[in-house]
Every structure is written in C-alpha cells, then in structure tokens.
Amino acid sequence: MNKKVVLAFSGGLDTTYCAKYLASEKGLDVFTIAVNTGGFSKDEVEALEAKARQLGVVEHRTVNIEQEFYDRCVKYLIFGNVLRNGVYPLSVSAERVFQAMAVADYVKEINADYVAHGSTGAGNDQIRFDMIFQILLPQVEILTPVRDQKLSREEEIAYLKKFGLDVPWQKAKYSINQGLWGTSVGGEETLTSHRPLPEEAYPTQVTEQTPLVLTLQFENGELSGFNDRKFDNPLKAIKALNALIAPYGIGRDIHVGDTIIGIKGRVGFEAPAPLLILKAHQLLEKHVLTKWQMYWKDQLANWYGMLLHEGQYLEPVMRNIETFLEDTQHHVSGTVFVKVHPYRFELQGIKSPFDLMASDAAAYGEMNHLWDGNDARGFAKILAVQSRIFHQVQQKAGGNEE
Amino acid sequence: MNKKVVLAFSGGLDTTYCAKYLASEKGLDVFTIAVNTGGFSKDEVEALEAKARQLGVVEHRTVNIEQEFYDRCVKYLIFGNVLRNGVYPLSVSAERVFQAMAVADYVKEINADYVAHGSTGAGNDQIRFDMIFQILLPQVEILTPVRDQKLSREEEIAYLKKFGLDVPWQKAKYSINQGLWGTSVGGEETLTSHRPLPEEAYPTQVTEQTPLVLTLQFENGELSGFNDRKFDNPLKAIKALNALIAPYGIGRDIHVGDTIIGIKGRVGFEAPAPLLILKAHQLLEKHVLTKWQMYWKDQLANWYGMLLHEGQYLEPVMRNIETFLEDTQHHVSGTVFVKVHPYRFELQGIKSPFDLMASDAAAYGEMNHLWDGNDARGFAKILAVQSRIFHQVQQKAGGNEE
Amino acid sequence: MNKKVVLAFSGGLDTTYCAKYLASEKGLDVFTIAVNTGGFSKDEVEALEAKARQLGVVEHRTVNIEQEFYDRCVKYLIFGNVLRNGVYPLSVSAERVFQAMAVADYVKEINADYVAHGSTGAGNDQIRFDMIFQILLPQVEILTPVRDQKLSREEEIAYLKKFGLDVPWQKAKYSINQGLWGTSVGGEETLTSHRPLPEEAYPTQVTEQTPLVLTLQFENGELSGFNDRKFDNPLKAIKALNALIAPYGIGRDIHVGDTIIGIKGRVGFEAPAPLLILKAHQLLEKHVLTKWQMYWKDQLANWYGMLLHEGQYLEPVMRNIETFLEDTQHHVSGTVFVKVHPYRFELQGIKSPFDLMASDAAAYGEMNHLWDGNDARGFAKILAVQSRIFHQVQQKAGGNEE
Amino acid sequence: MNKKVVLAFSGGLDTTYCAKYLASEKGLDVFTIAVNTGGFSKDEVEALEAKARQLGVVEHRTVNIEQEFYDRCVKYLIFGNVLRNGVYPLSVSAERVFQAMAVADYVKEINADYVAHGSTGAGNDQIRFDMIFQILLPQVEILTPVRDQKLSREEEIAYLKKFGLDVPWQKAKYSINQGLWGTSVGGEETLTSHRPLPEEAYPTQVTEQTPLVLTLQFENGELSGFNDRKFDNPLKAIKALNALIAPYGIGRDIHVGDTIIGIKGRVGFEAPAPLLILKAHQLLEKHVLTKWQMYWKDQLANWYGMLLHEGQYLEPVMRNIETFLEDTQHHVSGTVFVKVHPYRFELQGIKSPFDLMASDAAAYGEMNHLWDGNDARGFAKILAVQSRIFHQVQQKAGGNEE
C-alpha cells in the first residue's frame, strides 16, 4: 500500500503540478482538498472537483468552513476594528490560516503520512501553511515540491504535458484572491511603489451612481441586519450587504505593509462590506465604550491583526485577546446611519440605548448637575499639579527645561 | 494705580463682557490680547482691535504665533500622523494651548497681577486655559467672570447695554472655529448622536468637480512643496495647499470623542490640507520606515495627540516624544502621488531614495539572494516552536486547549 | 424625623469628630459603618463598636468583606503580578475602594440621605471615597466636615471635649494601615526623600533566623496551599502563609510613586505573603505562559494596578481586563519551591505539568527534532531581512544611518 | 593566494576546531579575533593569543571595545533600567552583538572573503552572529563548521589530536560567561526547572558580612562616582563598584525567559554592580521624572531589551529609542543612599535638586497653595464623570453591568 499525502489544492498550475508529481514521482496516494472560506462559488467548487478527478487523485474533498471562519476569526476582526496599517482588512492572510487548519484536520482524519502545499519559496503563504502544519501535525512531514525544485512555470507546464495535461495555463494579468473578508488584487502596478491599479483591475466594476441610504444594526458587536432586513446569522448579513454595496466601488485601496518575511509588500484589494462594517462598528463603539475601553481594544486588536497576518493564529495569547474583545461587546448594540456614494461612504450617526453622549444622558435630567465651573477649576488645578511642580523645580534648580 | 489684568480676547460676547466687567466692577486695568494661530485674516485682526478700542481697554495686543505653532506643535502632529480616534486632526484643542502660552508670556512681560479668560464652566477650553496658567503663572490669580457668575447670554447683553454697547449679539447657527490646522463646526446636529451636518454648515463649499493630480514633496517628514512649487517654509506650503484643495470638500468629517471632562463630544470639522498631508506622509512612512519604527511612532504619537488634546502640552514627556518623533524622520523624504476628487482623494503611490520596498531593492541586483525556500522552511519551523511546544504540552497534560 | 447620614467610621480622631459634628451641628441621624477588608482583629472590631456606642450613633454596623475583596480584586492582583512601580502591592489603595463600595451598599440599604467620610483635603483617600460615591450614589450628597472646615487636630479635640470625649488622642509615631494585602507605614522619615524607616517602625519584628524551605501550590493562578497544607479557600492560605513568614521580615520596602493628586508620595510597607505569592506566581508563569501572553498580561495588569490605585475600579475596562487575566490562568498550576531567609527569599524553581521549558519537553522524545542548524541559519537570515535592506538602502542613498 | 576567513575566536574547543578545520580542510588563510567587552583579564588575553599562535593562524587580533560597548549599549540599559523579565541584566546577549560587530569591522578592514563562528545549531548565539553578519556583511559568506557538521566534542578532540593538539578539553562543571554587565552561569541545575544553583557555582564567593553603607552619584543618568570617589568615566566607576560589592553576593539570580528560538531557557548569573546601579538609578528616576515619563521609558526600554536580546541591535528603531531614553535623562542627577548586606541591598533614599517630592517643593513655600479640599472635591467629581454616566446608562437600559 502506498503512503498517503494530503495536498491543499487550488486548481492552479502549482498545485496541479504537485498532484501529478507526488503521485508519479513519489509514488504517493494523493488526496486533494479545497477549503472554501467564502471565496468559491458553486461553479468554481464543481470545476475544481472536475479538475481533481481529471488528475486522477485518490480522492478530492471540498470543505466549506465559512461559518467556522466567521465564528473563530472574522467576528473578532470586527470586534477589534482590525485594519492592518489602518487600511487592509487582512482579507487573504486570515483565510490561509483557516485553510491550513482544515487541511490539518483532513490529514488527521485519514491518517495521512504527508501534507503538501504548492507555495513557492518567495511569499508569505508558505510560512502560514508551514507554521500551522508544524504546530498541529508535528509528526507529519511537509512536502513542498514547487518550493524545493525552484521550478519555473514553463518547467511545470512541460512536465504536465507529458501526462497529456495540455491546459492553456496563461497567467492572468491580475492575480485575484477572493474570500469572505475581501478580495486581493495583485498586478504589475503593485510591484512598483508609485503606480495605482486601473479601474479594470478590480473584480467589481462601479455601476451604481445614486447615493444609497443605509441603516446597519449591530447586536453585541455583530451585524444582525441592515435596513429592514433581519438575519439569523451575521455571516448572511455580511454577504447580502457586500452584494448590495459592491457596485459602488467602496472598500477599495492599496495596502503597503510588512510581510512576515521582512520585505515590504504592496497589494490592492476590494472589500466593500468589511470596510463599511468595520467603520460603522467603530463609530458605534466611540459612543458606547469608555475612553480606556477603546484604548485597550485598539492595542490588543492591533496585535491580533498582526499575529494573525503573520500566521500566529495558534499562539495562545490569541485566545486571551479574543476573550477580552468579546467581553467589551456587551453593549455594542444599536443602529448606525450610513450614506453610500460611488467610491466612498459617509457615517452619519448612531442610535443606541447604551450611548454615553452627554446630550442623551442630559435628557435623563441630571446631566446639568454633573459638575459646575467651580469643580472644573479644581479639576484643572489638580490636573496641572505635576507639571507645575516640575516647572517650579526646574526654575529653582536653574535647569534649562527645554 | 490699578492692578493689571491680561484678558484673552476673541471679540465675542463672553470676552466682551469680561473686558467691561473687569474694568468697571473690579477696577482693574484691562489689557486684551488676541493670539493668531492661523485662523484670523488681516480684516479680522483689525476688527478685533477696533472692538477692543471701543471697549476702552488700556491696551490691545495682537500676536501672530503661526510659525511658533507650526514649529513647536503642528510639525510633530505631522511626524506622528496624529488623528484623534482615527479622524480628527486636533484642530482647535492644540491651538488653545498655544494661545494660552502666548497670553502667559504677555502677563509676564507687563507683570500683570491677574490673567482672565471668558470660558464658561461647561467645556474643555477652560481646562486648557487654566492648566497652562497654573503651570506657567503659578503666582498669578486666574479670573473667570463668566464661569463664576454662571451668566446667560441675555444677562451679559443686558449688562453691556448699560454701557451703551448695544451690538446685535445674535448667535450664529453654526459655531465656527478657524485655525491653521483645521476649522471646527458645531451646530444643533452635533449635539445629537445621529444627525450629520448639512452641506451649508461647512465654511468652504464644494465648487470644484474636475479631479486634480498632485505631487507632494516631503523632506525629513515636512512638506517642502507640491507640484512644481518649492516653499522656503512648510507653513507656507500648508496654506497654499489648503487654498488649492479646500473647494474639493475633502478633509470633512464628524469627530466623536472623549473630552477632558469625561463626557463624549461630537464636532464637525473641515481640514483639507491637514488630512491630505497626514495621509500622504503616512504612506511615505510605510515605505521608508521599518515595522517597529511605525509601531512605536504610532504608540507615542497617539499619546502625544491625547495629552495635547487634554491640555497637557507642558508635561515633560511631550518633549521626549517630540525628540523621538523627530529622530524617526531622517529618511522620510520623497514624493507622494495623489489624485483629488470631490469629497475624497486617492493616494496613488510614492517615490523615495529610502524606499524599502523589495521591488526597488531588487533592482539593486541582490534581492534574489536574500533567502531561498530552504531558509523560509527553517524560518517557519523556528517561528512555530513556541506554539508547537505549547500544543504538545497541552496534549500531554490532557489539557483542553479549546 | 431627622435625615440620615452614613459615616465611614475608623474610630480615629477625624471620624469621631465627624460623628459628633453631623449629629449635633447638622441634626442628622448618624449611622456608622466599619468595613473590614482583612486588617481588623476581633478585638479591634469590638473596640470600634464600643467607641461608636459611646458616641451615641443611631446604629453601628461592621461588615467583613475580606472574601469579596479577595474574589473581586486581590485575585486579579495576583493573576497580574501587580506591583506599583515594581515595588508596592497596592495594600491600602485597593482596600479603600472596597470599603467605599460597602459604605455605598449600606447607604442604599437604609436609604440614607447623605454619605460622609472623614478625609482631609490633603490626600488620596478623599478622591477614592468621592469617586465611588459619585458613581454609585449619584443622588446622595457627600459630606466631608474635616475637609470643608480645614480643622487642626487641636480644634477637633477641643470640640470633642465639649461632649466629654476626653480621650488621649496622641498621634502615634508611625501611622499604620493594616489590611489583607499588606500594611502601610508612614512616619517622619517617609516625608523625606532620603531617610529609611527604622526597624521599630514596622509592625512585625524579625524574630526568625533559621531559613525556611517552602513549597507553594498554585491552581489556575490561585494559591491553593503550601507545604503539605491544602486550603479550601485561597484567602485562608494567604493568611496562614502571612503568619508563617512575617517574622522573617520579608516583603518590606519603601514605595515612591505618583499619587492621584499629582504629587509624589513615599510610604513604607510590610506585605510578607503578598510579595512572596506575587513573585512565586510570576516565576510559575514564566514557565507556563508564552512570551506574548506574559507581555500582554504585564501591559494590562500594569494598568489594572494604576487605575485601581487611582480609584477607577468601576471604570468598565477593569472588568474587561479581569476577564483577560482570568483567561490566561488556565494552566498556571504547579508547585513553586522557595527558601525564606531573614529579610529576603529565594525562588528556587518550579514543577508544573504545563511547563514549556525545553528540557522537559525534550523528555517527551521529540525536542531534538524541533529544528537543526540549517533551520537556524534560515531563520536568522530571514529575521535579518528588514534591517539588511534598510542598511543597503542607506548606503545606496548615501545616507548617514546613525 | 588563499582566500581569507575571519574567525571569532574564544580559545574553546569549538573555535579551536574551526581554526584548524578552516585552514587544513578548506585551505583558507585564518585570521582569528578575540573581542573583549569587559570579560577578559590581561592574562586571559595573552593566553588566547598564545593559543592562536600555537594553532598557526595567519594573524590573531585582540580588540578591546569595552568603552564602545558602554557608550553604545550599557548606557542605554541603565537609562532604561533594563532587566529582562524583571530579573536579568542581559549580561551575555548584549555582548555577543557587539563582538559580532567588531568581527565584521575586521572582515571589512582586511577585506576577508569569509566570516566564521563556532556556534552549534542549538543556541541563541548563532542567531546573533548570523544576523549581524547578514546585515553588515551582505556579500560575505558565513562559515559555521561545527553547526554544519553536527560534531560531538569527542569528534572535535579526535580531529585536533591528529595535529598534535592534545589539550585536556575537559568540560567545566559550570559554563561561565564573564562580561562587563554580568557573568552568566550554566550547569546541570539550570537545565531543570526546579533546581537552584549551589553556592560554589557562582564565580564570586561571599566573603563579606559587615553591612556597607554607600552613596552613588548619578549625573544625567550615568554613574559618575560613589562615596567620595569621582570617576572621569562611568565605565571605571562601574568596574570599581563591582569589585567592591561582589563579595557580598548581591546581584545573583536565575533568569527564566524566552530564547530567540522560541524555547524557554534558564540561566544563573551574578551581576553585582549592574543590579545595584539599575535599581538605584530607577529609584532616582521615581523622584525626578513624571508619571508619564516613567511609563513611556518603561515601555520603550522593555522593547530595547527584548530586541537587543534577540539580536536586533541594528534595527533602526533602536536608535530612535536610544534618542528618547537619552532625552529623559537631563535631570536624572543626584545621590542615592544604599546599604549593602550579604545577598541583598537596601535602597534608603535619594537627594536631588530635581526631586519632585512634595515635601521638598513644600520647602519652597508654596506647596500648601497647590490645591485645597474644594479643588479636590471638584477633581474627584469630574474624574468620576465617565464611569458615572456609564453606570447611569446601564441602569436606564436595564443592562446587567455585573
């Protein structure tokens, strides 16, 4: 009996090469798996299955983990208003980690001897796959034929031709990675530091011009509905919202950031619902959380995003941060009013029973008794004490305080 | 001889009342001072002087501290990409502090016995004025007639009428506070949590529709010019840029945040050049600074903004933070490409000799030798070590790690 | 019927004055309350009750909230290894807050019209009492006769004499504040910056000279026992441990820190069990938590201590931090080996099933496979990438990188 | 002509093997270098030179970089009060980095083709050496024969025997690494989690029993002298102080921490002067710096220590942090009073013209005017505002705030 390998399969040139190579040259029983975190349509799933069959793999498995991805990750990205470098909703990097974990589950399930991925040695995804496998499958060897053999596309195509696999593997002008939490777009422009992406590079074209008035409902930090639509699951609300606003071209930008590997990277993306939800959620929080709740949420969420981006989802501090973030969301409930224009949106305001804004509290009839000018004078006086002493001590000591 | 009081004078109802009250009821020699941090036109300055004369003050002084305000504050706000709550460039709060310091200088110069401001007991400005005076003028008593007497506008008007000062003190629909680093806009809408400001509330109306292509030049973190215009002083560059892009309606938003006093506040603003400069500067930094330089700049700059907002400009840690921020700007030089549309702008990219982007470095001919797939494998393996041990120890200990 | 006031009563001169003054001059029905957070012996409680009776108050209540204080506060101080400025276990400041909350409960229970405390205007305790009452009793007026009247001790004594209360109120040489989590010691030395406290200032004298070998057991971060003694309640374990090691004179120090009010304060303390527990707990954590768990615990715990010290226990972020800290303690279980000498102790090591130390994991037989020299080479190479590019770019640009 | 290699040479078995191997098997001209960062005596330096000659290297160089190590690193460790995990003064890890930089200078000076170090693949030093060489010598190949060949000590000894090098290479019971900023001690005990080091493991034995009273002088954060001795160089003061107090056995401890490689490590050390200086310096800072200066110094210094420990000395943020730390030291001048006992020391207090302690400022005659009870009341009221509103809003909303 042959040894078994599980291969993370995307249907692209690299993983197709791996499937063939691992079976023919290594004599392994190849089990392919495609993990859907929200980026595959039904047609795409079926096309992938057909491709795998055509390659003659022992078995192909498709798993849909959108719900798990939402529950164990996206939810916390929303709680934390996570945007890498203030811009990027982590669209691709978060999904890779969950794909790797689903692959690891399959390896365990069928008790495979090896796990394989098709990454090259150049990028970040190899690190994410490797790390998750190292942690969850410490006894299982990781096979990475493309990385090890440093093959060019031409060499891979030539190899596949020998098996009669003469597919036209032309490279798309833009490399697109679609997922629940955004779609990344790479092209020759993003390899420079100075060129923007042209309109046609973005998967969704701007077809709507009439401004759209929206109300978003949040319950305990999660999107429960918008306008008059209630959803039994935030995942569905996100998808419906995305479909509605994508033709406005909002949530597009170019992210410049540090890769795991230490070099700077630049990538375009469109993420309509993610951007709108994150910004609306954050505005609601500005009204219902205290200053220090906001401060510490920002601190921890920033690290959550950074560690997630760098493949460290399984570092145990991530669970502690999730617990913290969840604990801050008890009162993040209410409505956010939004107006969507082509290429931009306005946050117009919020309504919440937990709004701490003075004007609302004043309606309770006691706000005008909170303090008077005399209290403010005492407050300012004492707030100034340390700096006042410092400046006096400087003068006495003849110090030059500047 | 009467005792002397220096009054921070804006020409509004409150400070007009103070001028009259301090002279007539307290028998003081009133010296008024108006401090221009970039918000006053020449006409406004002259009108203010005329008003002071009309009130019969002993002397009125106008001081222009735009340059000092830029050198000792705005520059660091740019270095730090400071936006309160991710939105607000601190337009008004920073200027109040510098106005107070200029008033304190005048008090020392004429050896005044008292210093006065017209703030009520409700807001934040009283705290900023009080704190600066407490620290810089520990021996000088602070007089605040409006705060102490809790007068209504009607009572103030009635008092002034007695002196024949029958000016029509109608309250403007929107209270506007103009300065170098942005203009704040308050109105009945901003007293609610849910209403946006109407177009007409903003001082500058949107009159430009044709997209504008811009290149911004930065030298050591400061704006040295734009397009083909070079400026001998970043202050002039800021003002020229602001005039050029204001008619596009960019840099408008509503800020929701925590006041010094603990309540939430909501305020509209327009700050065209500040927003564009801050975002362009930040993009340039993403290319030329390392990950940890960005991280620590953000941490310190966030506090710089917070302490400045809360009147703590004279806390000595502020000087330490300025030194840090300045030290990070040695290589923040280059060009940022921007496209300005009505209500929004796109950052298109940058050029800099200090760009750390791999693609540029690759051109130097050695990037492809930085690492190979084998290095990446070792890197991922070791990066996973701690989490790997953690998960193994959990399993051995029978722990339920989730 | 008279209006009711609840007075936080310590039996000292200030609160005795308040009791008499509030009844006689203000015509209030005075209800005194003494809140024991671990510092009162049975005798002291009875003496206090007798004093209250002698003063003729309407009712005196003693409440013991040691358990609540442990469960809602001390536990988290241990989880967080909280020492202000690296030295002080927050002995007194934490207890004041819990005393104030118990007083507030009593006010609500008997529906009192006023709440009173005996603080002067000089210190921090007034702020802690005021803040808790402001938050929990927004409708109840706070009475502070000693603060308002700025009385000297002599004036208070003279006033009490009129009622035949001729107690010898001599001031002790050292002011001692005893509690569950440590005893503070103030004296003329602590008012200077340079003088240490003499041996006799400390309540517990050093009577043990023979080193003591101890093993401390922790379960989920809490002290469950020591040596061969198991306790059903960590509170009992703490008290027994304190009694055992106090005669060694450990846990003594002088804390220099910032008060709420902005001035620097200096205070001596002895806190034998707190110091030993905190340091032993922290050593255990160094073995069972990951680097980033330790890092973020430290960050949040530092703020927990600071906000607690400053009377901000009811700020909602405190609950979020507690949730985080608790979530990190699932595996903080094991034994810590300690040797106690006069004036110092040595932490000798730990045993835990969750120990992440390589040597233990190696025993599992796979540690030598975690990485090899080749992996380390790749790891170092990639870890150096960003700095390497930075230095290259500097050289190309002719920049002076220092 | 042969190609040239520079070998970091310690005279131990591994680097001796490397010297012989690189010359004989690789045909390279071997240039050895020993870098003294404060750990070598004159005799040791000479012994090392003799060893190198005996090995027949082309040239041996000894460089003393103590002063540079102090100026560019130790000084900042003092400014930052840096102790890893609250315990360890980074004795060894900081010195490795500076040794590597000195080696790199030599490589450039003689234009060598290779650089070599004798590290195995197990530890952290390989990472530190590799990283510095990768950054400073991007074109120079790094040779690591011991790591690559995974040799045992026996194999190395057998190889050297072939050249008549029959030195008795017995392994010492404790591996000792001496330097300016402390001496590390490893042994079989430190490989466990629970065993302390025995007395005899420490290089300096405790021979002093009589308590020693000391005064330490600091100028701008640096140790300028102690008792009545003034030094023209802090480096000399450190060495003299260390010699004086080492026989008291202070500054000993066991550090448990995270290595660069992700595993936990445990190491003993003695660092008498470093510990005393760091704690005395910190106490002085508690008196002369403001709360937020202390806070931000701690934040940045903690990272300085972490990045330094992990070989990231050349990351540019380190220069920014050094600038910050230096900027905070302008007033860290004064005297610290210390009493040294066997195994421990007491910090008794400080004197400084920049002391912010209220009691000193009071002597200036105005402290009693800083605030009164009425100010404190207003201060507490406003400080409570946000939590007060939060609790009210909770009640109105029927929320269960816990």
Strand order of the largest sheet of chain A: 3-2-1-4-5
Mean pLDDT of chain A: 93
Strand count, sense and closure of the main sheet of chain A?
Answer: 5 strands, parallel
- The level 1 CATH classification of the largest domain in chain A is Alpha Beta
Radius of gyration of chain A in whole Å, from Cα? Answer: 26 Å
CATH superfamily of the largest domain in chain A: Argininosuccinate synthetase, chain A, domain 2
Task: Write up what this structure looks like.
- The structure is a homotetramer of 402-residue chains.
- Chain A has 402 residues and is α/β, with parallel strands linked by helices.
- Chain A folds into three domains: 4-67 and 89-171, HUPs (Rossmann fold, 3-Layer(aba) Sandwich); 176-351, Argininosuccinate synthetase, chain A, domain 2 (Alpha-Beta Complex); 371-402, no CATH class.
- Mean pLDDT of chain A is 93; it is low at 362-367.
- In chain A, strand 4 (114-116), helix 5 (125-136) and strand 5 form a beta-alpha-beta unit.
- Chain A is built from 14 helices and 14 strands.
- Chains A and B meet through helix 5, strand 11, strand 12, helix 9 and strand 13 of A and helix 5, strand 11, strand 12, helix 9 and strand 13 of B.
